[in-house]
Design a protein that fits this description.
Helix content is about 30%, strand content about 20%. By secondary structure, the protein is an alpha/beta fold. The protein has a domain of about 120 residues: GMP Synthetase, Chain A, domain 3, CATH 3.30.300.30. Strands 4, 5, 6, 7, 20, 21, 22, 23 and 24 form a 9-stranded mixed beta sheet that branches. The radius of gyration is 25 Å and the shape is globular. The relative contact order is 0.12. GO terms for molecular function: acetate-CoA ligase activity; AMP binding; ATP binding; propionate-CoA ligase activity. Keywords: ATP-binding, Ligase, Lipid metabolism, Nucleotide-binding.
């Protein structure tokens, strides 16, 4: 499965300096450790477990599982019998054992004021709503809303805050196993809340602050939460979001549906309390005189008042290895939220809620190991992940993975394109960022503005670049590598899902020769395979369904409250395998290439085509910065290709350009892949985390106005414009 030798032609290598300090400095070392992780997982993961505290050691099998639905219930058990507390390992261990208490845990950056700087880039500012978190070894920094306004929190201070809020939760009757819903912007208190839950054994269910009241309500009811934690409001660009108003609307919907939530704790992030209220609090972190905060004294509790009366110490609740840690929902394709990569669930054509359930010990070890090795984390590093904690990337690679390694993070609340499109690189220089992790969508957007905004800044501190969220097309990879990284920074193109908990296919910076657009090889403990439609394993160069043959510590354990759905979604199609729902290609060198969701594969006249492959061909054209391809029913061919293209600034759409694009796709892939429709798309419908909502594009292609839940859209006006400018599909056959 892993080639004996790494290829030397048509690949990119890291610098020799990086190899000298790397945890895994060569392909040979990677292969040696990989074989050990597969043949002797007890020894491999047991060695990693020694870095962490265990109240009691495991007594049962180190790893036990069943992936075959024909042989009984699906289960995964890791370090059975062991007890620990993940919050203790993230904070107490670093403060008391590693003596990092005085080291900083957070820098917090909030966006520059829109009114102060003005909107520079129109829709793109709204589309690229990436809440930025930066992680540094031993530190977590928090910077305020204007340049020079900052807040720092040390590990000792963070531990104290978490203990105090854990005591707050206990005072409200929250106990081990209870579910707590968290609906907050990217503030330090979000991390405090989630770790406080983990400290007392409660299960957090974080709901992205961009979701609607209805979405919050559905998640509260599905996970049967006992308490809601929220904030008064936050800014998205120059738009004020009254989060408390949305939370109150969600709680009313819960009451209407027979699930009254008795308590809601609110953080004053923007507002100042009325003097008559008699509650003491620090001044607002960002002046907001227009924010009116609704208050229900029968339900609402003030975060600051509760914290002021809480004790500084809280004994951790010792949890079994397989006790639940968190539930996380994401949006699915049918217009209803589902808890995983959307397409897996779409195969079942279901629309009910599903919540990915992760457990304590396996998740701890896996995110700690992947963070350390994939980003080659070293003392003194500054790591920046541009995800929001409301998504799995934020859970694993802003909070749990970095803190487990004693890392320092920077949280950024706002838009990284303020005051201009060089904002990211200004932050890189300011904090001397060494490891940078972002989405291909963000890279393609920044490509539109050329290299000048990047090259205005030095970026000499950068050592490793990463991508997450979707396959990165080779053209964006080359720009990222050449312009941002100046051809000296390796790119870790990571493939994983909410369900996997952490990276499953990924390069290692010093060990893996890189191919632009390839996720390369499996991480330790992960055994991929490619199957055909009949479930037969394909050897050598091949393309088909990506599956995994055995579990790794961080894989999800179930769908909360619906284990049957878990089995049917991930294990029924191919018994004996975990089915990712993604298509994959393996080349002659053994490299894995993600081709897109299986339902993003098109069957055109009996030929399977990958939408990602067509998109890549389109963006190779000098005029195209981004493309999205979906299927549209065709009376003769079964399916046809409907393509949306976003052009570079200053490029006009024309019939001549359309002809060039069709020719390019034919030349790159073949005549069978020639687009049937190409639509000019100045903007694409994206979530606030930057992902393209392809189900919305499919609706537009078919002129279907019932879009389902689009509350996660960053800019709904994009959809209206795309409908107005649809291709004349009725004339085509």
């Amino acid at each position: 499965m892993i080639p004996d030798k790494a290829p030397q032609e048509n690949v990119f290598h890291c610098s020799e300096d990086l190899k000298k300090e790397s945890h895994i400095p060569s392909f040979e070392k990677y292969k040696e450790l990989y074989i050990r992780s597969i043949e002797n997982p007890d020894e491999f993961w047991g060695a990693i477990a020694k870095d962490f505290f265990w109240k009691t050691k495991h007594t049962g099998q180190f790893l036990d599982y069943n992936f075959d639905v024909t042989k009984g219930e699906i289960f995964i058990k890791f370090m059975e019998g062991a007890t620990t507390n993940i919050c203790y390992n993230l904070l107490d261990r670093n403060v008391h054992e590693r003596k990092l208490g005085d080291n900083i845990a957070f820098f917090w950056l909030v966006e520059c004021s829109a009114k102060r700087y003005g909107r520079k880039t129109g829709r793109d500012m709204r589309v690229l709503y990436l809440m930025i978190s930066i992680t540094i070894d031993y530190f977590w920094f928090k910077e305020g809303n204007e340049p020079g306004d900052d807040l720092t929190v040390t590990y000792k201070e963070l531990l104290q805050k978490v203990c105090r809020f854990a005591n707050v939760l206990k005072s409200q009757g929250v106990k081990k196993g209870d579910r707590v819903s968290i609906y907050m912007p990217m503030v330090v208190e979000l991390v405090v809340a989630m770790l406080a839950c983990a400290r007392i054994g409660a299960v957090h269910s974080i709901v992205f602050a961009g979701f609607s009241a209805e979405s919050l309500c559905e998640r509260i009811i599905d996970s049967k939460c006992s308490l809601l934690i929220t904030a008064d409001g936050f800014y998205r660009g120059d738009k004020l979001i009254n989060l408390k108003l949305l939370a109150d609307e969600a709680l009313q919907k819960c009451r209407d549906k027979g699930f009254p939530l008795k308590k809601c704790i609110m953080l004053k992030h923007l507002s100042k309390e009325p003097e008559a209220a008699g509650r003491q609090s620090p001044p607002a972190k960002r002046a907001c005189p227009d924010l009116e905060v609704p208050w229900n004294p029968d339900v609402d509790l003030c975060w600051h008042t509760l914290m002021s009366g809480a004790a500084d110490e809280c004994e951790p609740e010792w949890c079994e290895s397989e006790d639940p840690l968190f539930i996380l929902y994401t949006s699915g394709s049918t217009g209803k939220p589902k808890c995983n990569a959307a397409s897996c669930c779409r195969l079942l054509m279901v629309s009910s809620l599903q919540g990915v359930l992760h457990t304590v010990s396996g998740y701890l070890l896996y995110v700690a190991a992947t963070f350390k090795l994939v980003f080659d984390h070293q003392p003194g590093d500054v790591y920046w992940c541009t995800a929001d904690i409301g998504w799995i990337t934020g859970h694993s690679y802003i909070t749990y993975g970095p803190l487990a390694n004693g890392a320092t993070s920077v949280l950024f609340e706002g838009l990284p394109t303020y005051p201009d499109v060089g904002r990211m690189w200004q932050i890189v220089d300011k904090y001397q960022v060494t490891k940078f992790y972002t989405a291909p969508t963000a890279i393609r957007l920044l490509m539109k503005y050329g290299s000048d905004p990047v090259q205005k800044y030095k970026r000499k501190s950068l050592k490793v670049l990463g991508t997450v969220g979707e396959p990165i097309n080779p053209e964006a990879w080359q720009w990222y590598h050449g312009v941002v990284g100046e051809k000296r920074c390796p790119i870790v193109d990571t493939f994983w899902q909410t369900e996997t908990g952490g990276h499953v296919l990924t390069p290692l910076p010093a060990a893996t020769p890189m191919k632009p657009g390839s996720a390369t090889f499996p991480f330790f403990g992960v055994v991929p395979a490619i199957l055909n439609e009949s479930g037969e394993e394909l050897e050598g160069p091949s393309e088909g369904y990506l599956v995994f043959k055995q579990p790794w510590p961080g894989v999800m354990r179930s769908v909360f409250g619906n284990h049957e759905r878990f089995e049917a979604t991930y294990f029924k199609k191919f018994p004996g395998y975990y089915v990712t729902g993604d298509g994959c290609r393996r080349d002659k060198d053994g490299y894995y290439w993600i081709t897109g969701r299986i339902d993003d594969m098109l069957n055109v006249s009996g030929h399977l085509l990958s939408t990602a492959e067509v998109e890549s061909a389109l963006v190779e054209h000098k005029s195209v910065v981004e493309a999205a391809v979906v299927s549209r029913p065709h009376a003769v061919k079964g399916e046809s290709l409907y393509c949306f293209v976003t052009l570079n600034d200053g490029v006009a759409y024309s019939q001549a350009l359309e002809a060039e694009l069709r020719k390019q796709v034919r030349e790159k892939i073949g005549a069978i892949a020639t687009p049937d429709y190409i639509q000019n798309a100045p903007g694409l419908p994206k979530t606030r985390s930057g992902k393209i909502m392809r189900r919305v594009l499919r609706k537009i292609a078919c002129n279907e106005k019932d879009l389902g839940d689009i509350s996660t859209l960053a800019d709904s006006s994009v959809v209206d414009e795309l409908f107005r400018n649809r291709c004349a599909t009725t004339a085509r056959v």
